[in-house]
Amino acid sequence: MKKEEQNTEKNPIEEILRMDRMPHIWCPGCGIGTVVTSFAEALRKEKYDLDKIAIVSGIGCTGRVAGYTKLDSFHTTHGRAIPFATGLKLAHPNTKVVVFSGDGDIAGIGGNHLIHAARRNMDLVVICVNNFNYAMTGGQVAATTPKDANASTAPYGNFENAFNLPYITEAAGATYVARWTALHLRRVTKSIQEALNKRGFSFIEVITPCVTLYARRNRLGDGLNLLKYYYDMSEIQHGADTRTLDISYQGKLIVGKFVDKEKPTFLDAMNKHLSSVLGNKYQIYGDNND
Amino acid sequence: MKKLKADPKGVLTGSHFMDGDYALAEGGLAAGCRYFGGYPITPSTETAERFSERIPYVGGVFIQMEDELASIASLIGAVWGGKKAMTVTSGPGFSLMMENIGLACMMETPLVIANVQRGGPSTGLPTLTGQQDMMQARWGSHGDYEIIALSPDSPQECFDLTIEAFNLSEIYRVPVFVMTDECIGHMHEKVVIPPAEEIELVERKWYKGPKNKYLPYKNDTDGIPFMVKVGDGYRFHTTGLTRDERGYPLLNAECQATCVSHLIDKIKDNADKIIHLKEADIDNAEILVMSYGITSRVSIKAVQEAKKAGIKVGTMQLKTVWPFPEKRVKELAGKVKAIVFPEINAGQVVLEAERVVGDKCEVVSVPHYGGWVHDPNVILNAIKEAAK
To answer: Residues B27-84: pLDDT tens digits?
Structure first.
């Protein structure tokens, strides 16, 4: 291959990334980039109009995703990506709004917003990268850390119960719930495609390796070892009862699509209800109100 | 700055008997606010109630969020979605909003927050008045930044100053606070809402240039960057991190200096244009009574009595509390014997008067810890004492 040809060859997902910000800050072996690849791949496969999608992140390692995607992108405060996205969506309903953040951001500090957005069936896609710890700050225990795992603020092992995120989000009212690991690249892509085509609150949890902190501290090896763990211990059970999806330390990982149903979104419900109560005095709110 | 007339759909033209909380909502609607994210808190809740009742007929969204952190975060999102947005709260809710007020400042997001103040700290006096969040409005979020805060003295001014707050927020791309209080919030008075064509609004500073040339934080000639919204194909980035013109994080001392000094200077350099004062009997005054909000009205009685007693009293009502009218206060400090400054707090904005006046004249704080307004005699005695 001639040198010029080499230089002009582009990765097909480059169009979705801010290449002027590369290299990114993520560690070798980290799974966040894998999920970003799946996201970009989903947009590419769907031939999604990139002007009609916005991405909102909170704080943390995964919080940096918004800054690397070449879309209307917002890097907000810790835990508040979902309410920020709620305002964005309601103000501009014909934009697809994706929240892309970590477990600490979405399920820890932002847990209240997660359940309320699900309860309202806010039309958002939430991609929650779960690496079982607060990585950006140095591997502290999280609401998702499995019991007995070691963390820098649980130096004698974690004795708290971990959140089962598919169970919480289903119970709160999400209309699409899936869980995968960073090993299930194509399935993550497919789930994101499905969520992009769905109206309502979609929640996709992706379990990813944190090699530098979680794995090192727990002597679990490198990225490859963690992918091997996912390979050996994950089991696809579509439609599984979400009550059974707790994750134990290095235990079985039930993955799959658990919920996929239809329900009116917040705006559908608002328009329908207010129209029925107020009749033609009500100003239908939607895409034309830009 | 492009001027527009108000959209008649949101303007309830006429003469009304209305409380301050309702007038805040009407001011917002008249100013074109079409997104309200709120959380109930006494004594501000009536504003959210009014907005939720009115917005279905106007065309827009009211959403009661799960807490105040969510309310303010949703407002910032809504503004980047292209709407004008407001919320209302009181002390505890205001405390919860502080982090994201910083985000709004950093992202240079125009929005309006009304604080119907009650006595604090903590749960304090939910149903009784205070002016104790004035310094919090100025300094409450971490880091260095400048905001604008207005203080209405009546339901009519709740309406008028909410419109002014929206206009200032759009001109300077900054959060603007309407710092009212329980007394005014729950006080019913005549509120005159003019016809829509008499309400002048400022249009958002929309970018109109080529898509690939847009830089979210490149200052225009007036020092304020242009804005875009989602869905228009700019595919822009913004962040709470210290950022460069592109909106990209750049974490070093040089970029920090450029970024933060801009947030401060865009307000400081335009202070003369922003500040709105109401002065009376200033010439030959020996005593200057400075006040804002409800305390301005309570002071009227004290000033009348002092004049009857032969004291030359001038008054300065701060419609704009932040930025503080440094220049004017300094100027008057050289002419009067003393400044008397009553506030329903332990002495907050008076600290600014002390700072700028130095030893040019005496500054007398007349504090009140909240729960009620001053007895005018307390202010009168302070004036008499200062005049001695």
So the answer is: 999 999 999 999 999 999 999 999 999 999 999 999 999 999 999 999 999 999 999 9
Query: pLDDT tens digits, residue range B326-378?
Result: 999 999 999 999 999 999 999 999 999 999 999 999 999 999 999 999 999 99
Compute how many other C-beta atoms are within 10 angstroms of the C-beta atom of residue B222: 12
How many domains is chain B built from? Answer: 2
By the CB < 8 Å criterion, does A72 face chain B?
yes
Q: Which of B29, B65, B66 to mutate to test the interface with A (most CBs of A within 10 A)?
A: B66
Smallest Cβ–Cβ distance between A73 and the set B56, B233, B237 belongs to B237
- CATH number of the domain residue A130 falls in: 3.40.50.970
Q: Which of B183, B202, B221 is the last residue of a domain?
A: B202
Domain hosting B323: range is 278-387
CB contacts, 8 Å: A111 with chain B: none
Question: Are B76 and A76 in contact (CB < 8 Å)?
Answer: yes
Domain that holds residue A169: 29-263
Nearest to A86 among B77, B99, B239 (CB): B77
pLDDT over threshold 80, residue B290: yes
pLDDT tens for each residue of B311-335: 999 999 999 999 999 999 999 999 9
Chain B residues with CB inside 8 Å of A70's CB? Answer: 235
DSSP, collapsed to helix, strand or coil, labels residue B181 as strand
What whole-number distance in Å separates Cα of residue A144 and Cα of residue A131? 8
- Residue B294: CATH number of its domain: 3.40.50.920
Residue B102 contacts residue B142 (beta carbons within 8 Å): yes
Specify whether B195 is located in the same domain as B341.
no
Could you tell me which residues come within 8 angstroms of residue B242 by beta carbon, excluding any fewer than 6 positions away? B249, B250, B251, B255, B256, B259, B260
DSSP state of B211: G
